[in-house]
């Protein structure tokens, strides 16, 4: 399938209508045969549900497309050849995906996600894993956040990475990752979003983004995640999408490892080297994107999945009944850590302490992660050692003593 410009405009107006999400969009297309016919039917559907369904006018939709084009992007529709094949298979796949770059989107991919407040050990392992996966020919998908996400993107710029945004393409979040976006695009990677141009990300937009991260990937690797982490939401979506879930074990003394250790207890594949991912993903890639995914392991019932939007419930609408108020579908609550960035330390000592964990790490790596000189790190470590807060190991590595 290839949409005409007029059809693409109709699709955009329909999906941008309040009360129309991916599932309702699909139902409307199936019921009326085209987006144009569905747009014509919206006033009557709205009256029967006691709600005004008013799509944006053509000029507003044309402005959005023009703004995306000025940034070098384009809208790709489900069913078109460039639309990611794996993403198209998930429930509630975005009908339209705004893409910059994009040649990499149908390369076999693995998602790497984790804590924004990551430890130096977690960041170092992320870099090693992302680099290895890239060298094996896989694209690495992540969410452009601080911490694990950013390190994953940077580690495989030359081999290919995909960043999934929670807001519009002109609302990079966090804002200081604009240079990272430029680097991703400059090296042949891709940046994707489903929200409109000008859209500032809100709490509920991050779960929407997360189901795209897992949907683009054969498997999702969680590297560091607390028990109430947005990364665990992504892992849940991966299960619902019949994709593999991997977790990197961590110290039981580190709260950033509680979520990943729980995932392993629940059946996620333990990862301590690149081969652990490749051994599982390799056979799935050989079978192709149209084959069934991972074997079922108590996966949630998709019929019980919460909606991402306040969508009108067309299935509950009986055309023989008089007009009335039809309830909207339930929506996902905002994850606890995704609405705002965590505390960003503004002094060297606080930043270095935040990067330490019960896992030993070398001072050179600690200095690189903190963005300071080795001499500053050594001074801070001496102070921490005198306070009884760190333990020194062989080869100059140190670890945090949990209290």
Automatic annotation (TrEMBL):
Residue ranges occupied by any DprA winged helix domain in the UniProt entry: 342-394
Residues spanning the membrane: none
SUPFAM superfamilies, per the entry: MCP/YpsA-like
Classification via Pfam families: DNA_processg_A, DprA_N, WHD_DprA
GO biological process annotation, one example: DNA-mediated transformation
InterPro entries (alphabetical): DprA, DprA_WH, DrpA_SLOG, WH-like_DNA-bd_sf
Domain Smf/DprA SLOG: 75-279
Similarity comment: family membership: Belongs to the DprA/Smf family.
Protein name from the UniProt record: DNA processing protein
């Amino acid at each position: 399938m290839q949409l005409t410009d007029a059809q693409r405009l109709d699709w955009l107006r329909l999906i941008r209508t309040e009360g129309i999400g991916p599932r309702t969009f699909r139902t409307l297309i199936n019921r009326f045969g085209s987006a144009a016919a569905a747009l014509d039917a919206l006033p009557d559907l709205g009256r029967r549900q006691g709600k005004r369904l008013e799509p944006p006018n053509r000029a507003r939709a044309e402005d959005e497309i023009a703004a995306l084009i000025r940034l070098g992007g384009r809208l790709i529709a489900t069913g078109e050849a460039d639309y990611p094949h794996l993403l198209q298979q998930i429930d509630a796949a975005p009908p339209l995906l705004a893409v910059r770059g994009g040649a990499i989107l149908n390369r076999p991919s693995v998602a790497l996600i984790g804590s924004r407040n990551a430890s130096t050990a977690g960041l170092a392992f992320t870099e090693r894993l992302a680099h290895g996966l890239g060298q094996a020919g896989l694209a690495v998908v992540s969410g452009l956040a601080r911490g694990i996400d950013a390190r994953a993107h940077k580690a495989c710029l030359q081999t290919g990475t995909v960043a999934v945004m929670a807001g519009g393409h002109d609302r990079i979040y966090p804002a200081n990752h604009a240079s990272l976006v430029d680097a991703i695009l400059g090296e042949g990677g891709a940046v994707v979003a489903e929200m409109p141009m000008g859209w500032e990300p809100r709490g509920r937009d991050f779960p929407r983004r997360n189901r795209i991260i897992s949907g683009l990937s054969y498997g999702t690797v969680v590297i560091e995640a607390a028990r109430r982490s947005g990364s665990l939401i992504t892992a849940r979506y991966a299960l619902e999408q019949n994709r593999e879930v991997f977790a990197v074990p961590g110290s039981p003394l580190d709260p950033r490892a509680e979520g990943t250790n729980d995932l392993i207890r629940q059946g996620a594949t333990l990862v301590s080297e690149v081969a652990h991912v490749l051994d599982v993903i390799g056979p799935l890639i050989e079978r192709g994107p149209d084959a069934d995914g991972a074997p079922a392991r108590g996966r949630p019932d998709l019929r019980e999945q919460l909606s991402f939007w306040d969508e009108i419930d067309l299935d509950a609408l009986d055309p023989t009944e008089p007009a009335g108020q039809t309830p909207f579908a339930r929506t996902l609550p905002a994850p606890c850590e995704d609405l705002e960035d965590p505390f960003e330390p503004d002094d060297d000592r606080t930043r270095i302490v935040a990067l330490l964990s019960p896992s030993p790490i070398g001072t050179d790596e600690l200095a690189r992660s903190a963005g300071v000189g080795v001499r500053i790190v050594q001074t801070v470590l001496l102070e921490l050692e005198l306070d009884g807060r760190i333990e020194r190991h062989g080869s100059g590595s140190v670890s945090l003593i949990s209290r």
